[in-house]
Each structure stands twice: as structure tokens, then as C-alpha cells.
From TrEMBL:
Gene Ontology biological process terms from the UniProt entry: L-tryptophan biosynthetic process
Annotated protein name in UniProt: Indole-3-glycerol phosphate synthase
Keyword Lyase: yes
Residues forming coiled coils: none
Pathway(s) this gene product operates in, as recorded in its UniProt entry: Amino-acid biosynthesis; L-tryptophan biosynthesis; L-tryptophan from chorismate: step 4/5
Residue span(s) of domain Indole-3-glycerol phosphate synthase: 4-251
Alphabetic keyword roster: Amino-acid biosynthesis, Aromatic amino acid biosynthesis, Decarboxylase, Lyase, Tryptophan biosynthesis
Molecular function terms, GO-annotated: indole-3-glycerol-phosphate synthase activity; phosphoribosylanthranilate isomerase activity
Enzymatic reactions: 1-(2-carboxyphenylamino)-1-deoxy-D-ribulose 5-phosphate + H(+) = (1S,2R)-1-C-(indol-3-yl)glycerol 3-phosphate + CO2 + H2O
EC number: 4.1.1.48
Amino acid sequence: MNILDRIIVDKKEEVKEKKELIPVKKLEKSIWFETMPVSMSHYIKRDDKSGVIAEIKRRSPSKGDINKYISVEEISIGYMQAGASALSVLTDQKYFGGTNEDVMTARKFNYCPILRKEFIVDEYQILEAKSIGADCILLIASVLDPETIKKFTAFAHDLGLEVLLEVHDKDELTSNTDSDADLFGVNNRNLKTFDVNLENSVELLSLIPEGKLKIAESGIDRPEDLVYLKNNGFDGFLIGERFMRYSRPHEEAAKFLAKVKELENFYPTNA
Ligand SMILES: O=P(O)(O)OC[C@@H](O)[C@@H](O)c1c[nH]c2ccccc12
């Protein structure tokens, strides 16, 4: 069994237990059901921002511990001050060390779009995302079939949440081109083998349906990488480890984004 399969087996079990512990009726009492979400697409398009979706990630199956001792309050505020367009917060505990509280903390201290980064296998988790104050959910094409993706997307939209659909290869992309997802993300990391290749997103770019926001995900390590992806046509950039491996991730993000600006002034982008 590859790592992704293992995560999904565990996730299904976890959701089953959670549903009994916190029934939907209870989730729906959250104040966030009465609150308008902040549009991730809108923030990604704003040209006073970098397009970076900055991620809070304590550990990962490929890297082990990345940063154990973090303050979500400090990093989330710092990321946004550094010029990020949005936040991505992992909530999977077992493999990534995240919690729902991390989203709630980020929400409490920031008015900005927040992506709840989770392995969604059940509509319950979409309600849960809403109940903790997220604005956008992730759906992973290698985990869900196109029909389920459509169903989950409609369900999320009914709650006012946006959807980032993650694909990794041509097959996953072409079988979901009629998806209503708001953003299409191409993951440069193969979740089954952990191989990372930046060219993966560039190669698939032209197959992303028109009108969808294009997000390059994972393995972005140098400011030059971001500028390269942007010049090729990407609107957004999901970056985690590059910032998280430093003791003060948000300061690293600020330095990184200052360097991007410098490069862009040197090689003006056509955006
Ligand atoms: O840390 P990186 O290489 O910058 O990657 C961030 C993000 O793209 C990655 O965490 C990710 C992309 N898709 C996922 C799905 C589940 C968990 C994590 C992910």
C-alpha cells in the first residue's frame, strides 16, 4: 500500500468516529455558518498580492518533522503581513501534525482566505471545514472519482466555500475538465512516491480549463521558481516547507517575497 492509500484508509476510520462524536447538528451550530467566507479566488487575482498561498505544516510523511514548535497565531499573521494572498492550514493530525484548532486560530487572527488542507473523503468534512471558519476546501483527484468531485463541489458551493481541485497528472486533469471547482492546482509532488518535479505543473498548465485559477503546488524552493511559474501563466503558488523549515517561517516568507519583487522588477512579468 502506498502512503496515500494508507492515509485514506485511516481518514475514513477517523471520519466514522468523528461523526459519532460530533454529529452534524452540532457542527451546524457554529457561528461560521452565519458568516460570509472570504473568496480565495478573489484574493489570488488581486495584483497587490503575491499569489502565494502560504502553508502551515508541522510535519509530512516525506520529510518527517519540519517544525514542531510553532505559534499558529504568529505565523499566520506574519505570512499575511509578508504579502501572502491566502493561508493553507493542514488539519490532518496523524501524518501532518495539524489540528482543526489551527484553522480556528488562523481564523481568529486574520481576515483572509483560509484553505482547510485535509484529505476529504466525506461530505461531513466539508461541513466541518465550514464550522471551523475555513473559506476553501481541497479535493484531491487521485482520491475521488469525477462524480464524487462534482457532488462534493456542489455541496461546498452551497455552503459558500470555494474548491481547490488538486490534480497530479494528465489523466486526473482531463477526466475533471468539466468540474465546477474554482481553482485548479497541479501538485508537483506525487503523493504516492513523493517525487517532486516543478516541470509537472508547467507541462499540464495548458490543459487547465479556461476561466479557472491556476495554482502550482509543492516543491517551490527558490524565488526564481515562483517567477518562472508565474511567467508561464500560473496565478497562485502553494508553498509550505520552504518557509516552515525555518524557526521563523513568516520572516522567511517576507525575505522570499521581497526577492520575488526584486526579480520581477528586473524581468517584468506580463501579468
Ligand atoms: O511543502 P511544499 O513542498 O511547499 O508543498 C506545499 C503543499 O503543496 C503540500 O503540502 C500539499 C499539496 N497537496 C497536498 C495534499 C495533502 C497534503 C499536503 C499537500
